[in-house]
UniProtKB/TrEMBL annotation:
Residues 1-23 form the signal peptide. It comes from Phaseolus angularis (Azuki bean). Gene3D superfamilies: Single-stranded right-handed beta-helix, Pectin lyase-like (2.160.20.10). This is Polygalacturonase protein. GO terms for molecular function: polygalacturonase activity.
Amino acid sequence: MALPRQHHLLLFLVAMLVSFAHSTVPEDPLRLFHEGSPKDKNFIMQSTNVFNFKSFGKLGHISSSLKMVNVNDYGARGDGKSDDTLAFKKAWEVACSYAGAVFVVPQKNYLLKPITFSGPCKSNIAVQISGTLVASDNPSDYSEDRTHWLMFDSVQKLSVNGGGTIDGNGNIWWQNSCKKNPKLPCKKAPTALTFYQCNYLTVEDLTIKNGQQMHVSFEESKNVIASGLTVTAPEDSPNTDGIHITNTQNIQISNTVIGTGDDCISIESGTMNVLATKITCGPGHGIRYKSAVQIRNVLYENIKGTSASDVGVQFECSEKFPCKGIVLQNVELEREDGEGAKASCNSVQLSYRGDVNPQCP
């Protein structure tokens, strides 16, 4: 049964850029495939025990010995109007300096200018967001760095969760985009949430919405779990990729809903060992990777839904860097009008498992 028509495309991506048998991975990778998935010798299958710090960020399981750092105790007002950036900076400095701390954002609305939460910290750290973080919509506040709003830089063993909301407040940026108004010059806009060089990272149970441009970006990180995320923006919002991954190894994305104005999940070079499962995409442009990047060992599994265009499955790989080891397993996509969708495939080595429709001609 197809999902509602407003979900233009459902795609589950498992992209694994792996070494051959003689190679090794610097960190213990994810268990990338479950029982019933391809058993090709080039697929890396090891334990996710490397993520045993995962429950650290769950507030209900946190030891009483940990330091609770509440942003309100450092001057944050949480009225959605006052600038709480300085209070967040002060609270982060304290939390980062403790051997085990929880950075607590209560159920209020916090207005923030661009802010970087820098590491390395003294120990594991959890960020518990129960409230709403709202971005300043004044472009002059981004004069020093126009490309980031919230950024975690070089923070290891970090857990970010809490059921709260991160609101990029992107409307002013969309209005001034050259894609919206071709008469305007093309300028960069901030990514709402960036994780840069963060290893052993979990990001769970959050809503990220109305990104100024990209919503969530994982960059140069290793051993990442992202789960239970809701990423949304209007269908006509320009360049608002849901999740962007670049030069990152061993990342698992699951149980996530992404509906934006651009790519659902975009992957760039240097990324290796990606598992994306139970992802709902749409509206948006689905899953995309650049044809100049060599892609190997990709599993699309248990996909059902509708496509806004005639083409429901598209692999446009380059002759120089063909896509290899692509597997479609139990895929059923149709057009919004209920008619059968088509597949477009170039320079790709495909195999099918179970019921797959459409298939490449």
